[in-house]
Write a structure and sequence with these properties.
alpha/beta; about 20% strand; five-stranded parallel beta sheet; Rossmann fold; elongated; about 40% helix
Length: about 350
């Protein structure tokens, strides 16, 4: 019998469930789904991130914690493998090939780009975060996805206007807003367009800063050109390129005196002025709930894609001081967290 070793787990192909494994699963209220368990009764869940391992860690942590809270024990009832491509889509395809060959039961991903790659390579269930409100390739509708993908929509398009509203309150003298996003993915291009429209509706000029390779040189060029053109603050849309390179974006923007407004709290630790978006920890924990439901036999085609219900406003006083910015008391009073 051939053994395949990956991470710290050993998978033995072709073994049947033992009676004690069935009883153990029933003891924690599970129906036994039509998944291939290994000899120890473990199911295989694979986290696939297109960003770096360091950038993905805050996203994977709440998923792992939620599965543990639901009674899954890594190494005993479940094996959780994670792979990270650091923006290399070719590498991600090879990683997904490996995970499909290992017999992954459920894929969990933090964004739509990874979900799209997996869907082209496998018919296994996918639980995804950061989904758009509409994507005919990934799902038929939010209420009834109809395929192999379910998860959470990031509500990115509808949040654009609210995020611009926060920017205007923080920076009332702002005239020109930059929108930095992944320029290679149609979903993030759409979100960039929505943010640009929201800026125009709020009376701001706007410029799209589209990343294609996210090298230090490209980031520096885009930000310097934006400043030379009279640009003020930069709204950064989180995707696998901007998330992986957030430290470079934050440091270069700070050197150039351009305030960064981001949707992910991890940007504040690398120089963003304001963060406003869905509560990432709560959203990733909810992905863990959906993985649990799929593992218990529910069909992702019938699991509605959920919209975010919790949002966080975070402010960075240290960056504000460095840039000579004073937050209005109204914004400080509403902040969920203030970084000093």
């Amino acid at each position: 019998m051939r053994q395949v070793e990956v991470s710290s787990a050993i998978f033995v192909g072709g073994a049947k469930l033992r009676r004690r494994d069935v009883l153990a699963a029933l003891a924690w209220g599970m129906a036994i789904p039509a998944f291939a368990r290994d000899a120890a009764g473990r199911l295989l869940v694979a986290f696939v991130g297109l960003a770096s391992e360091e950038a993905d860690r805050p996203l994977l942590g709440p998923i792992r914690a939620r599965l543990a809270a639901l009674g899954y024990i890594e190494g005993e009832t479940i094996t959780l493998i994670d792979r990270h491509a650091a923006g290399d889509l070719a590498l991600s395809s090879r990683q997904i090939d490996e995970l499909v060959a290992l017999g992954t039961d459920v894929f969990v991903v933090p964004g739509p780009a990874a979900a799209r790659i997996i869907k082209t390579m496998s018919d296994r269930p996918i639980v995804a975060g950061g989904l758009p409100l509409s994507d005919p390739f990934l799902f038929a509708s939010l209420s009834r996805p109809g395929g192999t993908v379910t998860g959470l929509s990031s509500f990115g398009e509808d949040l654009a206007a609210k995020r611009v509203e926060v920017i205007r309150e923080a920076l009332p003298e702002l005239k020109r807003l930059g929108v930095m996003h992944n320029g290679t993915d149609p979903i993030y291009r759409d979100w960039g367009e929505q943010s640009e429209k929201a800026a125009h509706a709020a009376g701001l000029a706007a410029a799209r800063l589209m990343l294609t390779t996210a090298t230090d040189e490209e980031i520096d060029r885009l930000l310097r050109n934006f400043k030379q053109d009279g640009g003020g603050a930069v709204l950064v849309i989180r995707d696998f390129l901007t998330h992986t390179n957030r430290a470079t974006i934050g440091s270069k923007a700070l050197v150039l005196g351009r305030p960064i407004i981001a949707e992910h709290p991890s940007f504040l630790s690398v120089g963003a002025l304001v963060g406003y978006g869905e509560d990432v920890e709560a959203a990733m924990g909810r992905l863990g709930d959906l993985v649990d439901r799929v593992l218990k036999g529910e069909d992702p085609a019938e699991l509605p894609i959920e919209l975010p219900t919790r949002f966080r406003l975070e402010l960075n006083l240290k960056v504000a001081k460095a840039l000579g910015i004073e937050f209005p008391t109204s914004l400080l009073a509403r902040a969920d967290a203030v970084l000093e």
